[in-house]
Here is the input.
Amino acid sequence: MEKWRIENFYIYLLMKANFEGGLRMRIAIDAMGGDFAPKEIVLGAVEGAMEYGVEAILVGDEKQIYTYLKDCPKTELIKVRHASEVIEMGESPSKGVRKKKDASIVVSAQLVGEGEADAMVSAGNTGAAVAACLFKIGRIPGVERPAVATLWPGIYGTVIMLDAGANKDCKPEFLLQFALMGDLLAKTAYNIEKPKIGLLNIGEESTKGNDLTLKAYKLLSKADINFIGNVEGTELLFNKANVVVCDGFTGNMVLKTGEGVANFIVTLLKQEAVKIWSDKNFSEEFKTIMSKAQKRLDYTEHGGAPLVGINGICIITHGRAIAKTIKNAIKMAMEFVKSGVVKEISCKFHVE
Amino acid sequence: MEKWRIENFYIYLLMKANFEGGLRMRIAIDAMGGDFAPKEIVLGAVEGAMEYGVEAILVGDEKQIYTYLKDCPKTELIKVRHASEVIEMGESPSKGVRKKKDASIVVSAQLVGEGEADAMVSAGNTGAAVAACLFKIGRIPGVERPAVATLWPGIYGTVIMLDAGANKDCKPEFLLQFALMGDLLAKTAYNIEKPKIGLLNIGEESTKGNDLTLKAYKLLSKADINFIGNVEGTELLFNKANVVVCDGFTGNMVLKTGEGVANFIVTLLKQEAVKIWSDKNFSEEFKTIMSKAQKRLDYTEHGGAPLVGINGICIITHGRAIAKTIKNAIKMAMEFVKSGVVKEISCKFHVE
Here is the structure.
């Protein structure tokens, strides 16, 4: 994340130059996905497009999209692509994608698959995003299962964890592939020369774990990566590894538990603070500390989670995404396109 | 937890009366288990025995035990049972228990199995505690797998989560049994009339989850319990359910992640606080808030985790247990003996 902030101006200049030279990156945005769609998605897309000089293709119900675009600054960077259907959050992803061929999330993936967009962003149903990408963009040859890579704001910098939810039941071989993909992601998108790769597990020793992690440990030990062994939940955020692999059920569980515990502690602290300062007249110092810490944890500050292993770039962002989240997801999508990670994974898996 | 605090004096009186009447509860304490053994274990056992009027049988190397007992107040409530071996933290539980028949953890379980103690407490290797209990105390007939029940300090009171690590790979049927045992634990030891039982999962809907949770959901729906559906990691500490079931790998992962995220947030807050008050000259209010919140999260304040499904009571406490932890674990052991939970589970599983 930090790196991107620093490079922000540089990226802008580069994109601007490309744009002025007739080349510009095109990002398909699922305008109908997320709790605050389409309003926040539309606003974020406009902000992102203008700030980074990319073309944002808003995909969804054009009538609703134009309603919100009306109040935005006019820019030729915004395009609208009508899509008549929406896959809801509770809907079965595979059935939804099969049935609703004109759903905004499916059409967004189709634009990437057909080369009309360089990347896509969605705050919709994660399962549907994965299914739509598999259906319309396809896997990189050799990749068995694409994975959602989540970026944790560790104490000393970003920690990449995959899979965070695309594959609920995994074979040990999938975890090996996640490690190989995570390794390339860390190298290309984060400029980490020799990423430390860990296996998320319930003990430090190689003899600890369930059937899946015990077998995966053996495979990872033999792989051509810098495997540092097991990483426990206690160590995840303290940057023991740059990349941590796990099955999608465990990854999603850990992610949600982390969110829950963070909220729990903030609640505890506020309960104690109210005992000191009644009527929530918290001291300025306490308010500053809390808001700065919460900012570091805030999902709206980060872009989202890339889906790796597909033949293109898809950023899956938080279901509660607001405009700022979408703007940041656009920046992340640009970064991943620029990083060439898809090409790197293709080469790696083609050779092996 | 709260309940115990209130009942503290009552328990003491009851125990004292029993003790004076010639009956006293006997608790076997594995003196060699944990990072600070035997010193902290011995000190905690003496404190606990004297405070609650129970007999503490310290099991382990007698020479070392007597060294630390020398400095303690003299009391006839302390007994020592020599055991010449120790199962180390990194050691294979099953091999360790098979080979080291005179290990402190094995002998502690043996005392319970042979009726020489009413309960045991250990801060040693969790796997070894489970293996020793299975070997020397045995399962309650009908119980397929005993489970470690962890007690989370939820915002509105204790949340029981099981299994927290005894069974790394589970069948759906095991989760059903965990739910039945957790239900009885909540009723007997926590006086909750109709405990809300949840399934730890990665989505609210019944269609969410991995193969295990999808199948377990169906079994739980049909069981004679107050099943309220899936509980996500975000909701665990906000008391959506009184009892939450999961496989031991997931439970242990969630437990350690919770610990890690809590440490992470405390670190973040202190990093921000140092920016305001240099040289760690934090305001008194900030220090009070932090220490009170940390106290609510502190494992040394809580006793430990009961192993349910065995034909006796075993409290597995934190590997970093200090004297206070052991004292609290003794109190918890007494409470569980008194609750009659073993008898309740025996009846339930005998009938079914």
User: Anything to note?
Assistant: Chain A has two domains: 1-140+309-340, 144-307. Chain A touches chain B through 57 residues (CB under 8 Å).
